[in-house]
Amino acid sequence: MEVEQGEEGTPKEIAPNSALCVKDSVGNQSNEGKGECSSDGPNPGSVCNTSGETEARYSRLKIFNKVMQKSLDKFIDLASFNRFASTFRPLYKKNPQRMESIHKQFIEELRKAVEDDINRLIEEGRLDFKLNELDKLEQAAKDNPNPAWRPSGVPEQDFSSFLMPYYQKQEAYMRLELKKIKTENASLAQRVLAGRENIAQLEHQISTAVDDWKASVLQFEKLASSLCPTEVFNV
User: Fold this and answer.
1) What is the DSSP letter of 9?
2) pLDDT, tens digit, for every residue of 56-76?
3) CA distance 116 to 110
4) Which of 61, 65, 86 is nearest to 5 (CA)?
């Protein structure tokens, strides 16, 4: 980039063919908006947009990225070397090359900081997910052959037509949940009955064991009394 002194010592940028660059940029933007090829002259590298590129152009996420990039470029253009050097004119007069290097580094850091902030906002707001969801909803609406909802002019009927599907879904959901609860209750009741039967069997087994133990004790006492009568021990 060449720099020359202005009438009052203000640095002025010399950008050759700048008008041509602006014209080409405007032409390309207009052609992109119309989806047509440039007709300014023969350009072997230019190719018409395909249908896939046309569809991709309508992606909200890509449009958002293009808008952010263009806005960032315009913002960076405001911090031109001309303005930068005018602000620090004494330093520019002492060392123009050093000032140019500082401006270049400043632009790189500024662009990086703004891009980081934009990316952070996209991640925190989940804009990529939400914009893609909007694209899917739009495509689903196009594929739906049914006409879109329109008010009938009767508020009660419109209100009822809007709430009835919601209530019907809630009723179906509650019926399903009620069926699940009844099934769980029946299963729990069967488990309780099985537990009670097990307890009754255990009680019967315990009582039978106690009766057997008492009978064995009586038999032992009778046997002991028959083998060792009490008269033998009397003196």
Assistant:
1) S
2) 446 888 888 899 999 999 999
3) 10
4) 86
